[in-house]
Amino acid sequence: MRRLLLLSFSFLAISVLAQESARLVWEGSAAIDYELIKNFRFNTSIAQRTSFLEDSEGNLTEFSFLEFNQFLTKKISPTWKVSVGYKYRMVDPVEKLDVFEHRLTQQAAFTHIDKRFRLVSRARLEQRIRSSSFAHRYRYRLSTDFPLSGEKIDAREFFLVFSSEALFEAVNGGLNTWENRLSASLGYAVSNNIKADLTFTYRIEDINLELETILFISTGLNIKLN
Amino acid sequence: MKLQNLSNLSIILLERQMKKGLLLLSLLVFFCTGTSAQEKKYEREVKVKPADIPLEIHWLLRPYVDQIKKLKFYKETDVDHESYEAKFFYNKAKYSVEFSRKPELEDIEVIVPWSDVDDKVRAGICDFLAQFDKHRIEKIQQQFSSKTKTAEEVFGEALTAYFGDIICYELEVEVKEKGSWMPYELLFNDQGQLVNKREVSKRSADFILY
Inter-chain contact B207–A224, Cβ cutoff 8 Å? Predict the structure, then answer.
């Protein structure tokens, strides 16, 4: 079973790397998770993204952004968690004239199974405010994570995370779009409070229009302070 | 021309922001390294091969090997403690048998439904949990151990669910106290009295939530 799951992760990783027609994107992030006010968990993160594109003349160009995220989460029962979030993104002007982006998030997460294999649903509403547009985004994600050794994720152990997410975007005055994201992560618990991960994500964008695929390779660092 | 200047200015601003971001990232990594060095206590459960397990565990399981399903072996290490564990299913119930490094039987645990808990113990658990606003029982395990009986006798009692004189109940619960949900591990004796209560940490949800 463990080998099969590792094989699935490798297969997705190889598929991502072997694609020629899709865009390749690298995203790096670091996050800290802490309880500043009793009963509320805060998650602060910064991330940067570099995307490699081929222009009409076949030259490889890149664009980037840097973003700051702040989430506030309240556990309302052993299975339900609700969060609100804010994102500020500074976008490279190569990507049109949207040089900034604000994003407001409201989400609810429900834990279906909380054993060795954890299964969680997440429903998210977002309001995306860009320099030149406004959009409502509706997202639903089903994720599972589990340790590769033993029944819980201990220090110095690897774990896997798989997820599938559907996203509908309603742009004010623009075209509405559907998107699907499949991802596989290999995580490593450096200690009980520090985790690092390598994620491969396959995004299928504009499903209802002109379909485009984007491949993401992400690296992340998560630190739990208290 | 103006657009070009605006574009250049934005690139400069973005570069500055990225430099700040990288600085913050470096600080986080530095901080995380410091935190890691301070953490001295850790518990770790690693899956091991049957050959790495003390023979005593194999001898104990041998008479029941035909009925045992999904047998797996683990080694658990803590700062001052090391033990070996066999986990398996027997008659559709999930068991774990833990041996010390010596090796001596430490305890045998079996996951049971609430309906299988002794009435007296159930009443004791209910009384204890009544002090909280809300509660949710995640898991109940019967715990078998003995200082006088042999490992074979204790194992035999555990497999036949014989209610001898050595049963404890270990509960994983989440309780709502003072407005927040807290996960605990509770140990009740066979009279339904609380023997031990300790706060446990739940698995981080960062990857799942954000």
Answer: no
